[in-house]
User: Which sequence fits this backbone?
């Protein structure tokens, strides 16, 4: 699927947002600048809008490793960026596995954790610098195995 504008990225985020619940894992893969954080911002805003929560500024969790966003009705988003983590024990130290069930979990740079998750939806962002085009590949595991985008 090609993302030829910010609007197409926003629309993808809105579609994905309709399917996410607490204890879901959305894994975002891609090189620096491929669109992971921009997609995450659109996704959090779509979730807040869906839950009638006033949109708040969505920040990159690169330095904090995790940012939290309230969705009301006992739901929150945990937006992780594992880019700076070097080993799986770093993730355990965060208490990730103890708290993940209470959140919709968005994880940028999920390579250290992917083998530990029983189910997830993964979006791989591919940026073609020469054509200035972004595209995505979507795949899943567990309940997300046959997930497809229906606009």
Assistant:
């Amino acid at each position: 699927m090609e993302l030829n504008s910010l609007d197409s990225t926003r629309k993808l985020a809105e579609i994905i947002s309709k399917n996410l619940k607490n204890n879901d894992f959305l894994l975002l893969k891609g090189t620096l600048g491929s669109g992971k954080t921009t997609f995450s911002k659109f996704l959090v805003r779509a979730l807040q809008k869906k839950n009638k929560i006033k949109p708040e500024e969505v920040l990159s969790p690169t330095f904090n490793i995790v940012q939290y966003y309230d969705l009301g009705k006992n739901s929150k988003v945990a937006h992780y960026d594992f880019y700076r983590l070097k080993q799986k024990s770093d993730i355990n130290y965060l208490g990730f596995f103890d708290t993940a069930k209470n959140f919709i979990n968005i994880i940028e740079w999920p390579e250290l954790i992917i083998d530990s998750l029983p189910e997830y939806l993964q979006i791989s962002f591919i940026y073609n610098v020469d054509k200035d085009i972004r595209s995505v590949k979507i795949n899943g595991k567990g309940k997300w195995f046959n997930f497809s985008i229906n606009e």
